[in-house]
Amino acid sequence: MSQYFHSIRIDKEKCDGRMKCMRVCPTQAIRIRDGKAMIIDEKCIDCGECITVCPHDAIIPLTDPFGELSKFRHTVAMPSPALYAQFGREILPEKILSGIKKLGFDDAFDLALTCGEVSFAIQEYLRGYKGPKPLISIACPTVVRLIQVKYPELIDQLIPLEPPRELAAREIKRKKSKELKLKEKEIGTFYLTPCPVKMISIKQPAEKGKSYLDGAISISDIYGPLLSAIEDTGKGSYRKELENICILGVGWAMDGGICRTLRLKNSLAVSGLADILKVFDDIERGNLRNIDFIEAYSCQQGCVGGSLTVENVYISYNKILKLIETLEYEQIKACPDIREVRKLYGQKYFFIRGKFEPRPLIPLDKDLAKAIKKRKEKEEIYESLPKIDCGACGAPECITFAEDVVRGDAELTDCIFNLPQKFKELSKEFSDLLDEPALLSQTKSGAKKISKKGKAIK
Amino acid sequence: MTMSSEDGFSQKFEITGRDFSNAGRISTSIKEILKEIGIDRSIVIRASIASYEAEMNVVMYADRAVLTLNITPEKLHLKLDDEGSGIENVEMAMQEGFSTATDEMREMGFGAGMGLPNIKKNADKFKISSIPGKGTSLDIIFCLNKTEKK
Asked: Hey, what CATH topology would domain A66-346 get?
């Protein structure tokens, strides 16, 4: 078994090898073998792009079912701030949280305040940091994994602070266990997630520690029941509800929200894996050193664009933006006390326990000389291929196929353009055989066999 | 594109002057190759910075160039031969802060006069020669043999 846990599973019954997932995968982690998609564990960064493009819903995100709640004596739900953008303008966080409580959770916790604390902590970290720039936000677990796998050189530029969901789960467990006289493990903390990757960040944190969260429930799974629960709660006062919203925290739902609400000058917000790759290439080349902070989300527009959300991403993005603008206009400051945050920061309250370790791809060979030789072979194989990236061999591009061959994971004849060649060789072998008179009498049946085989290969 | 030499891996890349839209692509390809081969991380960083600076120098100042990457178990060699105006005073060009970049280039964030000095700083061995009116050649070498580091 692989050492990596992934939040994605392929349903072999439903998969018919259409290759859409293979082509969209940003780390070339998918191959088609025997007509079915398969994931190369070392390469997968759990971005969920394949889930979105699969026409048969054959790629299934693993999140927790509701039934998990019964395992705990006390349960707390913590929605991602992206949940706040899934409803109409008049449904504000307070109503949503009380709706969640009706669904069977003992408590619902507003993460926005914790997000606000972490925003301030990021500010503190930026202030004291002297190493290479820019620093990179850890809000998106896919981005953290992308750096571990593809950009290990940038690993020290990840901000080593706990993401708000982890921090909140830790504190809830501490406080509630004292308050209710329960053990910490009897308190179940559940994240309402906009994307599947948060699930692996729980099962297998990037820094090799153990998550404080007990599970993640998909926003799309909870949306229907939640909507009817909210309708029951009646109308509250809009202005009054606004006063409890932490503007810094709401910013975590959208790309650029942290930069904007912290008013960071030299910062950059980027979303979508294709654009992130471009920006990270630039950082690796030593560009962008004048930028202090990069906010990067693998989903378009940030968490509001997660594959497990329901609202159209542009509408929910706009809702968060408008909410921030309203809070700015109304000068609402329901934010954590910065002095308190500084004190906690000094006590290492925000820092992750472990360390982010690189997960670089395995080189072609452990031995340098052999690796160089194999790289040369890869180039030679690639030159012999048609270079049209048809995908029929089961690899996304001719160049990845060449690498698979060198690594021993594929055969040259898996390329359909090499089949005529193979067929030629077979028929030559066959005619050579015919030329040997001594064998002639015996090979008639053998000849039929070969031609049949040839037909089967096409 | 491939050129076979005895026991190494070689690849040639063509760079076109003024082609800003493709600038940086070659150094990215080189970086990918080095990672696949499993070159030490710190060398990959230095080599990608050096190759990027070299590539950008061609894009900004030369007409065209060929960058040859050669890797043997002992060393990583980046050889750049460009055709263009060359450098009048190599010594001056090697000074930090010296630049002949236009305002337009500076606006794009280039021309801080760090290019050549930065290549030299990152390489283990560095050689430059230039003929004004013809072109410039660079030899950028990284030692892969751990005992031979500078």
From this structure: Rossmann fold (3.40.50)
For residue B29, being part of any structural domain is answered with yes
Assign A140 to helix, strand or coil: coil
Cα distance between residue A111 and residue A169, in whole Å: 10
User: Which of A284, A371, A373 is facing B38, going by the closest CB pair?
Assistant: A371
Give the closest-approach CA distance of A285 to chain B in angstroms.
5
In-domain check, residue B114: yes
Residues 138-177 of A with CB under 8 A from B: 152-153
A361 lies within 8 A of chain B by CB: yes
Note whether A364 contacts B37, CB cutoff 8 Å. Answer: yes
Q: Kindly determine whether residue B37 and residue A376, on different chains, have CB atoms separated by under 8 Å.
A: no
Total domains, chain B:
1
Of A368, A378, A383, nearest to B73 by CB-CB distance is A368
Residue B27 inside a domain? The answer is: yes
Beta carbons of B27 and A375 less than 8 Å apart: no
Task: Give me the CATH number covering residue B100.
Answer: 3.30.565.10
3-state secondary structure chain B: CECCCCCCEEEEEEEECCCHHHCCHHHHHHHHHHHHHCCCHHHHHHHHHHHHHHHHHHHHHEEEEEEEEEECCCEEEEEEEEEECCCCCHHHHCCCCCCCCCHHHHHCCCCCCCHHHHHHHHCCEEEEEEECCCEEEEEEEEECCHHHCC
Q: Which domain holds residue B22?
A: 9-148
Return per-residue pLDDT of chain A as tens, 458 residues.
Answer: 356 777 788 999 999 999 999 999 999 999 999 999 999 988 988 888 898 889 998 998 877 777 778 889 999 999 999 999 999 888 889 899 999 999 999 999 999 999 999 999 999 999 999 999 999 999 999 999 999 998 988 999 999 999 999 999 999 999 999 999 999 999 999 999 999 888 777 877 777 678 899 999 999 999 999 999 987 656 667 778 888 899 999 999 999 999 988 989 899 999 999 999 999 998 987 788 889 999 999 999 999 999 899 999 999 999 999 999 999 998 888 889 999 999 999 999 999 988 898 888 889 999 999 999 999 999 999 999 999 999 999 999 999 999 999 999 999 989 988 877 778 888 888 888 888 765 555 555 544 444 444 444 43
Class of domain A368-414: mainly alpha
Do the domain assignments include residue B101?
yes
A364:B144 CB<8 A: no
DSSP A303: G
Q: Which fold has domain A8-61?
A: Alpha-Beta Plaits (3.30.70)
